[in-house]
Amino acid sequence: MNAPMFYELKRPKSIIPNRKYPALFLIHGRGSNERNMFDVVGGLEDNFFIFSIRGHIPQSPGYSFFTFKVFGQPDREGFDEGVSLITSFIDYASEQYPIDENGLYFLGFSQGAVMSMTLALTLGHKIKGIVALSGYIPQFVLEEYDRKPVDGLSVFISHGEKDPVLPYRWGVAAQEYFNGMNAAVSFYSYQEGHTVSFKNQEDFKLWLLKDLKG
């Protein structure tokens, strides 16, 4: 079976035969690539199979998972295709690698966070949790997508209070929505802009490891 998307993989150094491992799927931001995301998850390699996925749309200087018609409104065709491709990639990875299907996580920054939150709503209990860094939920996802129950889903949402790209209030609205859907939400805010600070990295890594044990 051919992979539906280009990706890079980091796996635990010591693989125990017949054992399955949790998986962390990284989704980068606009104009970035699959290599850039590994820097923010350093130290998690021995706990997860870490797949970093490349966006399917070329966008200088890298790639994207969707483009925009107007600010805050992703182009629907490219967005829908991105959701479908990532969903297919999850199936591919689960077939090709010793992955625990009860331990699947998404981690995304910016439009990667947008995709992570959307996939949480479309896949529901098929995944265990998401880490959404500086993103939002598009309105058409809330109004038109076939959304699954997310009660009990582990959700980490963070946003910079000084974000000049995606307003802080959008991150607040996302955590309020997931709270309203009875997900297990942890919300973190930082005195930062549109970035992933070292403190933010520390916080979500601790959260991930704690959620694995819980």
TrEMBL record:
Signal peptide (UniProt feature, chain positions): none
Keywords in alphabetical order: Hydrolase
Single GO MF annotation: hydrolase activity
All copies of domain Phospholipase/carboxylesterase/thioesterase, residue ranges: 24-198
Hydrolase as UniProt keyword: yes
Keyword set includes Hydrolase: yes
InterPro entries from the UniProt entry: AB_hydrolase_fold, LYPA1-2/EST-like, PLipase/COase/thioEstase
PANTHER family xref list: LYSOPHOSPHOLIPASE-LIKE PROTEIN 1, LYSOPHOSPHOLIPASE-RELATED
Family note: Belongs to the AB hydrolase superfamily. AB hydrolase 2 family.
The protein's name: Esterase
